[in-house]
Amino acid sequence: MVTRRKKSPKINFMVSKDRYSRRLYALFSRAGLRACGKTPLLALLVLLTACAVPYAPPPPPPMAKADLQDLTEVFAVGYRNISEKYIVPISAEVIALDGLSGLSSIDPALQVHKRGKSVVLSYSGNMVTSRKAPTADNSVAWALVTTDITIAAKSVSADMLNASNEKVFEAVFDGVLSGLDIFSRYAGAEEAKRNRARRDGFGGIGVTFKIKHAQIIVTAVLPGTPAEDAGLRTGDVITAINGKPAQGLSRSTVVSRLRGPTQTDITITVRSPQAQQTNTVVLTRQHIVPVTVTEKRYRGLLYFKIASFNQDTARSLSAKLTKAQAEMGSGLKAIALDLRGNPGGLLKQSVKVADLLLSHGKIVSTRGRHLDSLHDYDASGDDVANGIPVAVFIDGKSASAAEIVAAALQDRNRAVVIGTSSYGKGTVQTVIRLPNDGEITLTWSRFMAPSGYPLHGLGVRPSVCTSTQDRSAEQIIKETFLASAELKTTFESWRLPSLQAEDIRSKLRATCPPEKHQAQAEMAVAKRLLGDSIVYDKALDLSAKHSQARKE
Q1: Long-range contacts made by residues 350-353, C-beta under 8 angstroms, separation at least 24?
Q2: Which neighbouring-strand residues pair with 187?
Q3: Is pLDDT larger for residue 361 or for residue 201?
Q4: What is the DSSP letter of 104?
Q5: 108, 160 in Cβ contact below 8 A?
Q6: Which of 371, 401, 517, 536 is the most exposed place for a label (fewest CB within 10 A)?
């Protein structure tokens, strides 16, 4: 008996007349895989593979209504403030499109562009979705479009699907702000919290520390703080925080454990370097503002180092100056303000610092588009130093608020500025707090020195330049006075009221370049100038004649 093998049933495929189907049919024919051929299963697999629609991941689970509102609210607040306050006009449309382009930092396959009257999202070159473009200045509508595009991107991109809202905010706002200027930037909630702590203070115990060999070593105890009251000293090792071992913790972890809401208790276990036993104390956190002003006293000279400008800088400087006046009496002959390496900080604090040493005249002017950015700050009329000689140190890292102080004291003929050309950050930033507790630092105005020149890209030119080759203090002073005529011409060009072309600014800055300077010789220069009234007045005259800084 012969068993016949049954033929495989024919599989009839509907082949339409469209080009795509005909090409598939031709492909099967060339491969010898017609549907009614000898290997129908293989034919079926090939056909299913060839005809398959490119795989798209299933849509993400619907976002909670609160999450959608959070996205839109943060975008709307950010877009509106950037559009209204940035130093030059920029529409909500440009802001949103630049922000959406930032999504490619999460997944490079994502592309967003405007096509006609639509905003189109593509993934790997294939269109995913589109939205009607709102009017150019409608911030809320563009925020809604941004949210819609973000949700659509999550439906096709695994990277986007896994990205938190904070990651999306960072991508979008970085996309916007990176194209504006180098000083405008976005900070997420955690970074913004640290920024606010530097500016405004935080709940803490009042210590600074370093980590060495996995140990937490106290490097300073701030006066009048819970740490000082509890007897903590420099060199103490913090071995436990709230009963948990501190050894081996990262710096950020130690900071987060030491800080907390004011009027809350924290338990610290410390070991002094002289003793082996530990001591456990309970402290109540207080509002701590980072120290920005430190002082040294030389023979007749009161030296202040100002590291930055936070909300306590002017008060701290005033308090230290008042105390020194009481203790030094007539022995206080001069003051030096060291602003080298000072990156700036709060504008109003720089105004208050300058005001401490000025009796009259303008300190600084700010000019921007927004009404609130237009200000003229004038001295209040009380020089607390009573006119004693002042020197100011600056260098290429002295920026922003530090430059305001240096320019004001120089232009008002109140101080001799020593060092190199400053950084040249002549713009003012405003901080916009967002609903997610992040913040946008946005450039919204330029500031002008009292003599009328914009500092942006130019900076402050010292009267006594310490750049170039090594020289003694006497050589620096001698060469400065010998070149006084040339220097006065330089100041005249430096103080032109218009913002000069970049090449002109570069040539002016090259007269006292910030790249190299003699930090050690600068104190000797200051002591020489401040110790001789004739030499000091001569140095003041180098910048005063073309500074418009006449007593009123």
Answers
A1: 350/309, 350/400, 350/401, 350/402, 350/404, 350/405, 351/377, 351/404, 352/313, 352/314, 353/306, 353/309, 353/313, 353/314, 353/317, 353/405
A2: 439
A3: 361
A4: G
A5: no
A6: 371
Same domain, yes or no: 460 and 537: yes
In a domain, 318, yes or no: yes
528, containing H or E segment: helix 519-530
Question: How many folded domains does the chain comprise?
Answer: 4
Question: And the tokens for 217?
Answer: 């070593």
Give the mean pLDDT of the chain: 86
| Contact residues for 73 (Cβ-Cβ < 8 A; gap 6+) | 143, 435
What Å distances lie between residue 160 and 106, 144, 441, 548, CA to CA?
7, 18, 26, 58
Asked, for residue 196, whether it belongs to a domain, the answer is no
The amino acid at residue 137 is D
What's the domain range around 248? 202-288
**Residues near 129 by beta carbon (within 8 Å), at least 6 away in sequence:** 120, 121, 148, 149, 152
Token reading at 14? 């509907």
Supply the pLDDT for residue 357.
Answer: 97
pLDDT at 167: 96
Confidence of residue 59 (pLDDT cuts 50, 70, 90): low
Q: Which residues are catalytic?
A: 400, 411, 425
| pLDDT tens-digit readout, 309-354 | 999 999 999 999 999 999 999 999 999 999 999 999 999 999 999 9
- Beta-carbon contacts of 513 under 8 Å, excluding residues fewer than 6 positions away, are 420, 421, 467, 468
Is the pLDDT confidence value at 55 over 80?
no
State whether 462 and 523 are in the same domain: yes
Q: Are residues 264 and 388 in the same domain?
A: no
CA 136 to chain centre: 28
Pair (466, 357) in one structural domain:
yes
Which of residues 253, 288, 323 is at a domain's end? Answer: 288
Helix (H) or strand (E) holding 480: helix 473-482
- Could you tell me if 109 and 242 lie in one domain? no
Cα–Cα distance measured from residue 273 to residue 544, given in angstroms and rounded to the nearest whole number: 54
Q: Tell me the CA distances in angstroms from 152 to 55, 108, 112, one per residue in order.
A: 16, 15, 11
Place 49 in a pLDDT band, splitting at 50, 70 and 90. Answer: very low
Residue 25 has pLDDT above 50, yes or no: no
